[in-house]
Design goal:
By secondary structure, this protein is mostly beta strands. The chain has three helices and 21 strands. Helix 1 packs across helix 2. The radius of gyration is 21 Å and the shape is globular. It starts with 5 loop residues before the first strand and ends with a strand. 46% of the residues are buried.
Amino acid sequence: MKTPHTALATAALLALSFTSAQAASWRTCEGAALKWNGNRADMFISTTSFPANSTWDSAMQNAMWHWNNVKGAGFNFFVGRDTDGSSSPDNGRNEIYFNASQTGTALAVTRTRYHCYWLFGWQRGIDETDIAFNTSLGWNTSAVNYANLGSPFHFESVALHELGHALGLLHSDGVMATMNSFYPNGGSLGQFKEIDPLPDDRLGVRSLYPDGTTETDIAGSAFRRTGSGTSGLVSSPASAARGSTISIGVSVANLGTSTRSFNIGFYLSGDSFISTGDRLLGTNTGASVSSGGVLTFTRSLTIPSNVAPGTYTLGFIVDNNGAVAEANEGNNGQSMPRTITIF
C-alpha cells in the first residue's frame, strides 16, 4: 500500500509571466485526470468582497455561467454566499474573495487541494479550491477596452481564467486561450466583447468532463496570439487613401464540437457596429476551422475610391451569408480595435 498523498497547488495569474508553451492540460494521478468527482463545484462568493447583486457579483456569476454553458462538457459551478468575511485554503469550502496578502504581485491566485493515493484502488480527485483576487490592484467591470489592456484589469476576464483553474485546468501558454497566463489571456469574442472560454479551453473542459452533447458556434475576435503565448490585438491601419490597398488582421474561433466551414465577409461601416448592411469590401469563401482551433490570418482589402473622406470602422462577419446554424449568432461580427480615417 502506498502512503496516502494530498497536496495544495497554487496557480497565479500575472500581468506578465514567462512559462513553457503547452495546450489545454490538467494534473494527473497515475495517468488519470485530477478533477471534481461529482462534476460540480459549489463556489462561495464573499459578500464582503463582492456584495450580492453588485456588478462584481454579476461578473463572477456570469463567468461561472459561461463555463457551465460549454456544450460537450458536463461540469457545473453552483453559487453560494460566504458572509462571514473569513477565508482559508483548507476549511473544506470553495471561497472567492479579495485579499492582497495571499496574492503577492499576481492579479489573482487559485489554490487547489486534491488527493491521490492507493487504498484498494486509486483514490483521486479535487477536494477544495479557493480564488483570491489582488485587492491592491485596479479593477474594472466595464467592457474590454482595446485602448488599454493593462490596469485597471478586466475583472470578468480574470475571473473566467481563475475558474478554469478551479475546475481543474492548468495554464495553456502555447495557444490563444482563456487559460493563457499572459493577461489579457485570450481576449474577448465578437464586437460585443463577450468573455467566453476559447476553443482550447473548451477542449480542456470537454476532456475532463465529457457528456456527449454538441454545439455549433464560430466567433470573430479582435485578439490574436503573439510572441511566445501572449495575446495582442489584430492589426489595422489608422488611415488610408481612397483607392489604396490595406491589410487587416483576422481571428476566427471555433467554439463548437466539430469542424466547420464558412464564408467571411469584410465590411466598411460609418459607425462602430459591423453589419451585413455595411459596404462589402470582399469575401473569403470556404474557410474551415477544426473544433478547438483558432484561424488567424491577414486579409488585403481595397478602399473604394468613391467613399467620402471621414472616419470609419473596418471589420468582418463570420458566416456572413447565414449558412451555418449556430448556438450564438451574436459573436460573428467583429470590428477592428481602432477606427480608420479615409482621405
